[in-house]
């Protein structure tokens, strides 16, 4: 399921996303294989944003672009491309999951 993520979806409701939770913090690697929509990727450790990829485009062939967390992360949030800018999300911001 983690490898599949949001691949194959042609739509993601506004201001929604997919949160990946890992049992321990580590360097996380994500790709856009099978994606049909661009995404923003947010790397999180604890309650702090430690990295952001804006506008990751769907994969168009080989080799795949691998997006890597800049530091060990225990959560990764994928959201619609452009939402990071729209919401003013930035490095160091706090994250609260409810």
Word description of this protein:
The chain is globular and about 35 Å long. Helices cover about 5% and strands about 40% of the residues. Strands 1-6-3-4 form a four-stranded antiparallel β-sheet. A two-stranded antiparallel sheet has the order 2-5. It has about 100 residues and is mainly beta. The two termini are about 20 Å apart. Strand 3 and strand 4 form a beta hairpin.
Strand count, sense and closure of the main sheet?
Answer: 4 strands, antiparallel
Poorly predicted residue ranges: none
Q: Helical element count?
A: 1
| Helix proportion range | under 10%
Gyration radius over CA: 13 Å
Q: Which secondary-structure class do the elements indicate?
A: mainly beta
Strand adjacency order, main sheet: 1-6-3-4
Distance between termini? Answer: 22 Å
Shape descriptor: globular
Number of strands: 6
Order of helices and strands: EEEEEEH
| Integer average pLDDT | 89
Beta-strand residue fraction: 35-45%
Q: What is the subunit arrangement here? A: single chain
Summarize the topology.
Blueprint (H helix, E strand, L loop, with lengths): L16 E10 L2 E2 L8 E7 L2 E9 L10 E2 L4 E8 L2 H5 L11
Antiparallel strand pairs: 1-6, 2-5, 3-4, 3-6
Tags for this model:
98 residues; mainly beta; four-stranded antiparallel beta sheet; 1 helix; globular
């Amino acid at each position: 399921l983690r490898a599949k993520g949001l691949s194959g979806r042609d739509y993601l409701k506004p201001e929604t996303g997919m949160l990946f939770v890992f049992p321990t913090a580590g360097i996380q690697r994500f790709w856009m294989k099978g994606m049909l929509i661009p995404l923003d990727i947010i790397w999180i450790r604890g309650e702090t944003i430690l990295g952001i990829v804006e506008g990751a485009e769907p994969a168009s062939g080989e080799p795949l672009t691998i997006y890597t967390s800049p530091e060990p992360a225990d959560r990764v949030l994928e959201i619609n491309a452009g939402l990071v800018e729209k919401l003013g999300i930035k490095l160091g911001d706090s994250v609260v999951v409810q």
